[in-house]
Amino acid sequence: YNALLTVFTTCNATRSEHPIILKEMKKRYVSWDEHTFAALMAGQSDKAKVIGLWQLRLDLISSKSRHFRHRKTAPNKAAIMEVLHACVELGDGVMAMSVMADIGQIADGSMYSLALLALQQDHINRAEYCRVILDKIFQNDTKVPMRSYKYAMQIFEKASDWRNASLFLLQLFRKGVPVDIAVINWALSACLRAKQWEIIMKLFEQLPRLCTSTKFKPNELTYSLVVSAALGLGQVLKAKMLVDSARESFSSGKSETVPSLK
């Protein structure tokens, strides 16, 4: 079996050839060991030219995962990471969610991060799956790389999901996570795309108080989003005040001062 698999991966097998491999998979259970994944990785020298190989790997893992639920043995973490990397390369958020469901309790922060990145790379809106992963992260108090939060907020922003974006932002503040200004801007942008102008104004007023671990430093994009929200509400004078405040802050080299919008 491994010899056959090596031939297919080395030759960059196409999806039309997958049934032959999958037929072999049905005959016998193949363990998640180093040797199998060494075969799966054979011939992968240029990722840009072996998308067929990535897809073949995902098909094989999908086939094996049905056996995995009924067995005591667990796949090694290196193998799981390789599969999740493949999901990222293909932008296959659904497969990433399937893998995370299969591995269950052995999931760690790095795996959650890759799953979120796969969802972020998916061309279809996967905000509901993103929320599921975030709930698991918070429930299990799992430590994840800071970039994971950026992936999640980008997903909500792309989906114009202002509810999840604002809720997620508040969750990060409550947990004392240092929130990057980019994450704040994506949350505000999600609200703007959904025309939730009042939410933007309220968040902007609260941000200096919410940012306890790091000082709130709005940048040009932050002000642009809030000014757009003010104009959306027809509050021209407030928008002008924000523009003036931004000019003063950036001309003096400071962006910590946030004007009162009352």
What does this protein look like?
- The chain has 262 residues and is mainly α.
- Helix content is 67%, strand content 0%.
- It is built from 14 helices and no strands.
- It has helices spanning 2-10, 18-27, 34-40, 51-68, 77-90, 93-103, 109-121, 127-139, 147-158, 162-174, 181-193, 197-210, 220-232, 236-251.
- Helix 4 (51-68) packs across helix 5 (77-90), helix 10 (162-174) packs antiparallel against helix 11 (181-193) and helix 11 packs parallel to helix 13 (220-232).
- The longest helix has 18 residues, at 51-68.
- The radius of gyration is 23 Å and the shape is elongated.
Short description:
By secondary structure, the chain is mainly α. The chain contains 14 helices and no strands.
Annotate the secondary structure layout.
Blueprint: H1 2-10, H2 18-27, H3 34-40, H4 51-68, H5 77-90, H6 93-103, H7 109-121, H8 127-139, H9 147-158, H10 162-174, H11 181-193, H12 197-210, H13 220-232, H14 236-251
Helix pairs in contact: 1-3, 2-4, 4-5, 4-6, 5-6, 5-7, 6-7, 7-8, 7-9, 9-11, 10-11, 11-13, 12-13, 13-14
